[in-house]
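Q: Trace C-alpha cell order:
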Amino acid sequence: MNLISIPAFQDNYIWVLSQDDGQCLIVDPGEAAPVLAAIDKNQWAPQAILLTHHHHDHVGGVKELTQKYPGLVVYGPEETQDKGATHIVKEGDVVDVLGCEFSVIATPGHTLGHVCFFSDPYLFSGDTLFSGGCGRLFEGTADQMYQSFKKLSKLPEHSLVCCAHEYTLENMKFAVSILPHDRAVNEYFKEVKELRAKNQKTLPVTLKKERSNNVFMRTDDIDLIKEINKETNLQQPEQRFAWLRSKKDNF
C-alpha cells in the first residue's frame, strides 16, 4: 500500500492510499483539481472516498470526483449526507476498501459528527488530532474533544497520524510556550522548523511521537500540570485540556 499526500488550498492535505495495481481511496478531497491531476499522472483507479466531516475544505471536491467516476462510493458521517456521502458511517462501523478494514471512530469536538478512520497503521484524523495540536472547537466542547483524544491515544503507538492540515510548526510554537524546558517538545520543534524551512512536509507522524510532543495528549503529565498550576489549579485532565485549547485559541 502506498500513502500519498496531495497539497490543497493553503495548508490542506488530501490523503490517498493506492495499491500497486492503481486502485486507490481518497480522503477528504476539499478540491477536485489536484486529485484529478494526481489520478491522471499516476494512472490511479479510484474506488472510494472517505470523509471525516462536513467542512467545505474537506468535501468540496466530492461532487466533481463522483461525476467523473460514477459509482464511486463515498463514506462519511451523517453530517456529510448532503455533501455527497453515499454510505453513512458511525462509531463502530467497519468500512472495507482496497482489502483494508477501516474502523470508524466517532471523534466529536471540531464538529459534532466528526469521525476518524483507522486501518493499522493508517489513522485518518481529519481535523481532530493534528501533529502537536488539536482541532478548533467549532461545534463541540472541550470535554468532547478530550474524550475523542482518549480514544485515539489508545491506538497502537506505530499508528501513522494522517491529519488534514500542515499546522505542525504553529502547534509546536505553542507547545514550547507551554513547556519551554521539555526536551522532547524542543527537539521536535527544532525538527519541524528544519523541515518547514526546506518546505518539506511534517506528516505523517507516529502516534508515539504525538504522545511525547502533543500537549493535548499530555494532560496527565506531571510537568504539564506543574506549568498549568503556575496560573491556575485544575484537578481534572479534561479541565486542563479545555485550558490548553483556550490558550491556543488566543496564542
Observations:
- The two ends are 39 Å apart (CA to CA).
